[in-house]
Amino acid sequence: MIGRLNHVAIAVPDLTAAAAQYREMLGANVGDPQDEPDHGVTVVFIDLPNTKIELLYPLGEASPIQGFLDKNPSGGIHHICYEVADIHAARDHLVQGGARVLGGGEPKIGAHGKPVLFLHPKDFNGALIELEEV
């Protein structure tokens, strides 16, 4: 069901510094910050030859990323995103198998303009999983 790895998301306490570190120290192709109010984050994508890194920074007081950074002040890996061909079919299959979909179970439009869902980390070995329809 899952396809290729779309991105690995890293929550960061300083988005500007983290983007500069990837650009200047690692020589990466770093995109511009984009606010995603529906998800409570500002993101920066770093393009790699085989996938992307997504830097996450809190947007607003209710941001789920702020809670993550409160527990992990230095930041850290927040989630991994896999591609799926049909997000509704993937969701139905996962729910039937006992997985929990966060946020009411309906896809939202993600940072790439495509439908996304998040799966409860307790159902996947402690890893928060994002599915993105491609």
What report would you give on this structure?
The protein has 134 residues and is of the alpha+beta class. It has a single domain (5-133), classed as 2,3-Dihydroxybiphenyl 1,2-Dioxygenase, domain 1 (Roll), CATH 3.10.180.10. Helices cover 22% and strands 35% of the residues. It is built from 3 helices and 9 strands, in the order E-H-E-E-E-E-H-E-H-E-E-E. It has helices at residues 15-25, 64-71, 87-96; strands at residues 5-11, 29-30, 34-36, 41-47, 52-58, 76-84, 108-109, 115-119, 129-133. Strands 1, 2, 3, 4, 5, 6, 7, 8 and 9 form a 9-stranded mixed beta sheet that branches. The relative contact order is 0.21.
CATH class: Alpha Beta
Please give the CATH architecture: Roll
Number of DSSP helical runs: 3
The number of E-state strands comes to: 9
The CATH topology: 2,3-Dihydroxybiphenyl 1,2-Dioxygenase, domain 1
**Radius of gyration, whole Å:** 15 Å
Oligomer: single chain
Segments where pLDDT lies below 50 for 5+ residues? none
State the fourth-level CATH superfamily: 2,3-Dihydroxybiphenyl 1,2-Dioxygenase, domain 1
